[in-house]
Structures are given as structure tokens and as C-alpha cells.
Amino acid sequence: QVQLVESGGGLAQPGGSLRLSCVASGFTFSNYAMSWVRQAPGKGLEWVAGLFRVGSDEYYAEFVKGRFTISRDNDKNTLYLQMDSLKPEDTALYFCAKEKFSDYVNDYDYRGRGTQVTVSS
């Protein structure tokens, strides 16, 4: 079965950085686009960033453009999210998500359990 296991969350100061990782199993990772989504306290899920299966087409929500970078290593079945210039409003539970298709994002069918990111001084 599909398994997505996130790691790398924690506490960061405003302006700081964190790098999230997601190890995938149970499906052919290189065949699917992948995304990161998040859920802030008391709010709904929001899509953050996505990457097509080959890794050359990256897409970002406006609120993270220029600060976050999504990448993948298909040999390691791993998805990454480099988060720089963090803001308190980035505080959320971050989920790795498997997309339904190879070249379309924000239409996922599975997500992991999440890793908590807290941005506070």
C-alpha cells in the first residue's frame, strides 16, 4: 500500500530555514507528480508546492514563492521541501502528497501523517 513518511519538521525562528523530507513506498514514485500540502491550526488543508514526475516543472502557491523549493530524488523515492525565510504564518502540519497523475498537481489521492513546523521567536 502507499506509504508516505515525512520528517524534518521542528522549531525555527522567523527568517530561518528547515528542510522537509518524505520517503515514499508502495507505488512507482517516478511515475507520479508529488506535492506538499499544509494545515495551520484551526484552518483547512492548503496546497503549498508541487512537482511533476520528471522534476523539471515546479509549481508554488503564491504565499511561498521565492522562499520554498520543492525537489525530488527518484532514485531514493524521496521528496523534499527546502523552506527558507520562514514566517510565523508558515506554522502548520506539513504533509507529503502523492498526486493522481504524472503531470498535474493539486489533485492528490494519498498523503502522509505529516511533520509539524513551528516558526516562532
Notes on the structure:
The chain has 121 residues and is mostly beta strands. It has no helices and eleven strands. The strands form two sheets. Strands 2, 4, 5, 6, 9, 10 and 11 form a seven-stranded mixed beta sheet that branches.
Quickly list its features.
121 residues, mainly beta, single chain, four-stranded antiparallel β-sheet, seven-stranded mixed β-sheet
Structural class: mainly beta
Number of strands: 11
The end-to-end span amounts to 40 Å
Tell me the fraction of residues in β-strands, as a range: over 45%
User: Which bin fits the share of residues in helices?
Assistant: under 10%
Give unreliable regions as ranges: none
The SSE order reads EEEEEEEEEEE
Overall pLDDT level: 95
List the helices and strands and how they pair.
Elements: E1 3-7, E2 10-12, E3 18-25, E4 34-39, E5 45-51, E6 58-60, E7 68-73, E8 78-83, E9 92-99, E10 108-111, E11 115-119
Parallel strand pairs: 2-11
Antiparallel strand pairs: 1-3, 3-8, 4-5, 4-9, 5-6, 7-8, 9-10, 9-11
Concise structural overview:
The chain is mainly β and 121 residues long. It contains no helices and 11 strands. It has strands spanning 3-7, 10-12, 18-25, 34-39, 45-51, 58-60, 68-73, 78-83, 92-99, 108-111, 115-119.
